[in-house]
Amino acid sequence: MSEVEKSKENIGRQAINRCISVAPMLDWTDRHCRYFLRLISRHTLLYTEMVTTGAIIFGKGDYLGFNNEEHPVAVQLGGSNPDDMARCAEKAQAYGYDEVNINVGCPSDRVKNGSFGACLMAQPEVVADCVSAMQKAVDIPVTVKCRIGIDDMDEYEDFSRFIDVVANAGCDTFIVHARKAWLQGLSPKENRDIPPLNYPRVYQLKQSHPELTIDINGGITTLAQTDEHLQHVDGVMIGREVYANPYILAEVDKRYYQDDTPVLTREEIVAAMQSYIDRQDAPYFKPWHAVRHMLGLFQGQPGGRVWRRYLSQNGTGKQPDPQLLTNALAAMKETAQRANDYQSSSVG
Question: Residue 304 is part of which domain span?
């Protein structure tokens, strides 16, 4: 059975519990990253990087491929043509994705010039047409990720109107980045930090629309913060913190999904990822393609700096170490042992 056929079997097997999810992050949440994160949490909903309809329809690469182990996994599409969005949603369902999400939040110039992303918040009817066309084409959920506003369209009434128009087209799930986007004058990076967070606006949306599923995103760095948000909304999407400190997901399954299955230790994850790297046979695959997502695995742990330095120094170049992860772990342990020996001799 092919990977695509295996993936198709997962459609409809169980409803997605979207309590916790990891944000779609361009150049970060690729299939190797998602496989790695799935080793830490069995239930967290994972998202692809945004992929444009043009890439899927006209590109030569396999922009929808993923590992069967990644479920539950959603694909995020960038586009604004209803026919193209429906066509790509249909392809995504055929591949076995559990959800298809529309990007109405990315503020980059490249996205804006392509008439999709955050600029679509000024065109709710276009988003509504896309939702309607996509829902006619697929059975999996069609969701929208948006901001609370853009530029001078940043009052609650503007935000509420966007939600109302899109919801009336049939969308019942919105993931809201609790910052507006400045499309004029700020870079995409600045748009992740400079516009102030406004969590109460997202809470107000849920209060006004209890029938909708509302997830919150933006600036969330701890599970304690997550607990607070879940008092007001249905789900929490965490972004950069998961990438910098991926083992934060180790508590998620028991805490939010009542799953007591033992979580893999960091060392067990290293072994599993080394095995994953060894299995790759794509002609252009290099260990660094997977390893780069693991720099933060030992964040806050003794030897974490050694881990990051070893991977960075030995993971790239013309002849990367094929046993990079195994050797990085060994280097970390060796450094820790030398430190212990030094302390012991100093005490003696």
Answer: 266-347
